[in-house]
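Why does residue order matter? Because the sequence determines the fold. Keep that principle in mind as you read this record.
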Amino acid sequence: MTTVAVIGAGWAGIAAAVHAAERGHAVVLFEMARQLGGRARTVEQGGARLDNGQHILIGAYTQTLALMAAVGVDPARVLLRLPLALTTPDGRGLRLPPGAPIPAFVRGVLAQRGWPLSDRLSLLRHATAWSLRGFACDPMSTVAVLCRGLPASVRRELIEPLCVAALNTPAQDASALVFLRVLRDALFNGAGSADLLLPMRPLGDLLPDAAGDWLRARGAQVRLASRVQALHAAARQWRVDDEPFGRVVLACSAVEAARLAGAHAPGWSARAQALRYEPIISVVVDWQGTRLPAPMLALTGGPAQFVFDQGLLGGVSGRLVFAISGAQRWVDVGLDATAQAALEQARDQLAAYAGSVQPVVVSTMAERRATFRCSPGLERPGMHVADGLLAAGDYVDGPYPATLEGAVRSGRSAALAIGA
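Structure:
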């Protein structure tokens, strides 16, 4: 048995702590905030429980779903599973029918009547070519370059919103290689892999709260509001502040991990510090009497790429959440102005489903370092920081962009690397 300190209790830290505890290690989980969950958490605001941002899971998130089940959460009870649909309020867009992934994709594309047949066939030709190349490409290529042969309608209505949703990076700046990996695993990796899994409960109920209880029940310590000040290397062990541990997993933000690792692994720390970020803004709106035709719709012509109807997801009726990815320019404009722009977008595109009262902004939240900027050729820091010192997080080197699945997989890998 090894004593393990996991520093940071986002989804990567939770995964590392749970998997380490499963393997019989003595775990202490440190978290500087007062709740678990990191950038996918539930917060108290004005007496209400609100998520700090709208998150989407997909069927390909196998490790995330397995971790939820391991700590006693039934994904089928807390997530609404729907076939992938990127449709606008007027019904335009791509819908994938159930079934085997490749036939479903072909049927879904051919059924998209908003594009002329030539555009649909062009998308199928490109997708076939990507598949034949093993979903590989020049690592320095952007998504915009990868898709420049596609018709403008396909790029505008499918590629660009899918890219910003998956990578939180605009297509002109996003890594084509990572984008293709996401497409391969989501669209062509077995029946149901592309399904949308939309939370029907607050994010805290999906994993963090249950994981905290699970860890405590197995003798692990969960220390909230506890920021680690420094790491000290000693003979065959590490000291977290003044406490000895056999292994340490840095599962905090890249910025915090770079601070703690700087004296021990300056090269690793420099690479972590060099990451650049994209924000995500969530605008929560109450619009009494409003009911959308689907729990999630794609939007155009405004700040938000997607809107979610919480009333259709088991939440407050008439409450809408507008998700703005790749949101740096809106952060620069200001949150009040962004909220007003989202309201104008709502009035313009959702009028057919609106109630008779005016919409009211409940909350506008910006996660300013929501994800790293997933650009071509990005060199991400690796899992091994120093002897006995590991890193876990969605920013750690791996095939996925900054997603919940990437975080969970990274945490699991770090726990397995601790050894028996």
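The two ends are 7 Å apart (CA to CA).
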